[in-house]
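Hey,

Quick one before I head out. I ran the complex with uridine-diphosphate-N-acetylglucosamine overnight. Inputs first:
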Amino acid sequence: MEKLIIEACPPLKGSVTISGAKNAALPILMTSILADSTCTFDNVPELRDIRTTLALLSELGAHAIRLDAQSVEIDPRQINNFNASYELVKTMRASILVLGPLLAKFGQASVSLPGGCAIGARPVDLHLQGLEQMGAIIDVDAGYIQAKVNGRLQGAHIFMDVVSVGATENLMMAACLAEGETILENAAREPEIVDLANCLNAMGAKVEHAGTDKIVIQGVKALNGCRYKVLPDRIETGTFLIAAAVTGGKIRCENAAPETLKVVLDKLIKAGAKLDIGEDWIELDMTDRTLTSVDIQTAPHPGFPTDMQAQFVALNCLAVGTGVVTENIFENRFMHVPELQRMGAEISLQGNSAVCDGVSKLKGAQVMATDLRASASLVIAGLVAQGQTKVDRIYHLDRGYEHIEKKLNGLGANIKRINE
Ligand SMILES: CC(=O)N[C@H]1[C@@H](OP(=O)(O)OP(=O)(O)OC[C@H]2O[C@@H](n3ccc(=O)[nH]c3=O)[C@H](O)[C@@H]2O)O[C@H](CO)[C@@H](O)[C@@H]1O
Ligand SMILES: C=C(OP(=O)(O)O)C(=O)O
């Protein structure tokens, strides 16, 4: 199994190019199911989840290929299988996003239930209830969601009890080919939702007010293929900025979208960093500055993103003072805490909060990645820990970070990937 070996490094310095956003690219790739002709998507990161999505679309019958390091092409015209198998869904929860498009375009879908994962139970009840409100008949049997609709889905007024990114995306895609108007209330407002809406509109859909909590969609009869560029990854950006901050470095993130991570940048300033921000770049300077603990409360956008929580716990481990990080989205997203404790961090878990007293040094250790962002926090800690850190189970990391060790090494880190 592959592992990362990380040695303590000098302050990170230089410039890094941010990749396309995983969480925007995944639903955007799924929009191809709705189209009547070929779609080309640019700024699509080379990640395990993207390969899984291309495999899933291929399994459905689409011709889905990577053209080059940036772009993928999907011709959906041969889709003739409406079944997303457990084998693929179990490796990537976002596979559930084929449900809405398949049902809207072909009137049927069979999708394995994603099941729980390391960070929480993550039910899909809101996806199913919304589709039922649009006229779908859904049966959950033997671990599979069996869904069908007689004729077209019907526009509906849907209120979601919980703010869900995935449910908003699934229902938004389904509504584009439904008959009539759909209103999604208490919708998620993440930048990735806006990116998805922009892509759908480029295909001929009529989606309005994405980015607010009330999205209005007028269904159309057909969508065409399009060429669309995925937005930059705000979570990857934040992760690199924190890596630079904990090492006392100075880096510039190019090809970023600063307006999508305002709340993260605010916390970095509170943590002591000096930031310079341009239209598509962010420069962080931590030279000779004191890293200070910050308090965090995760919340749906525009609140603090849960996907940056673990990285800030790593920052607090090394900062002056006590920082309280509270996780409000997922019930089990502190799996990085025991691993960071093994490296010498002083963290106590109190309910859904991690209370962290900063220490002046961490010590390298053998640690285990348990989920994507937990893995990132261990890599960040490894950059400054004395001695060697060995991170096991890095397939989690490869789901969401493109060439992470190559990019960090380009900034002066010393990370090797080994197979043992
Ligand atoms: C591929 C992708 O974009 N993943 C992101 C997406 O995940 P994902 O779309 O799975 O997360 P959701 O926004 O749906 O989950 C938010 C909360 O809603 C709950 N819930 C969700 C659906 C549902 O039907 N019922 C229900 O109760 C979840 O258990 C969770 O507590 O948003 C999360 C929250 O920002 C991020 O951490 C993930 O990185
Ligand atoms: C939790 C994440 O992704 P996913 O929803 O794909 O598990 C993430 O990107 O941090």
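The radius of gyration is 21 Å.

Talk tomorrow,
K.
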